[in-house]
Amino acid sequence: MRFIVSLLFLLLSASAISAPKANLWPYWQQYATTNSQTVDHGRWQRLLDKYLVVQPSQTLFRYGRVTDSDKYELDRYLRDLTKLDPHQLNRNEQFAYWVNLYNAQTVKLILDNYPVSSITKLGGFFSFGPWDQQVLTINGKTLSLNDIEHRILRPIWRDPRIHYVVNCASLGCPDLQPEAFTASNSERLLEKSAARFINSRKGVNPQSGNTKISSIYDWYGSDFGSQSQLQKHINQYRQGPPITLDKIRYDYNWSLNDAK
């Protein structure tokens, strides 16, 4: 029995490493070109203000301190978002909508199952995490977190910096930003998120003989291009001497980004 469990764990881990490819869901391509409708992300911002802990090298979340009333506010925020028709939003509003929706839903999944040591423990015995679970319904269509990231955000916007702003509640993940995304601040937060991650040890950590970089650059290598393109991307944001990626190794920490 122990051998079978170990084998299943290895198989699930391997499937996690084989990250989903960007596969456009055409239904979500439509957007408004003249509509000036905006989305209120105030409830999400208030939760971030109250429970996010920004440290020099790591952002954590106080899952264990979230009150029942604030859990209700998070639920209400998510319900309000799912009642909207994203097709009626312009492209910038859409981007902020999907990023905030992804991050807020991830926090909700952790809160619904807290205490938990890692998000990878969610999703059932035969799942490595909850990313394929149908957790949201918008315009009558059910969506998973993977749908939002890999079938909407990545194929529509085609921006590798997306990987720096969708948070998987793990210590190895790019930090959850203390600001809710909006149509007006998205570009600034994309740049800020990229710089913060690349200049953190979990993102890029030059060491004697090799450079340790996040497994994100392995899993989503197609989004960052060739090795030389990835090196140029990293050095664009890196503070300090430029690095070379001649010898690299990948690393990722799936432990929960929990502020005890």
UniProtKB/TrEMBL annotation:
Transmembrane portions of the chain: none
Entry protein name: DUF547 domain-containing protein
Domain spans labelled DUF547: 87-198
The organism of origin for this protein: Photobacterium lutimaris
Keywords attached to this entry: Signal
A Pfam family annotated for this UniProt entry: DUF547
InterPro entries attached to this UniProt entry: DUF547 (IPR006869)
Domain of life of the source: Bacteria
Signal peptide: 1-18
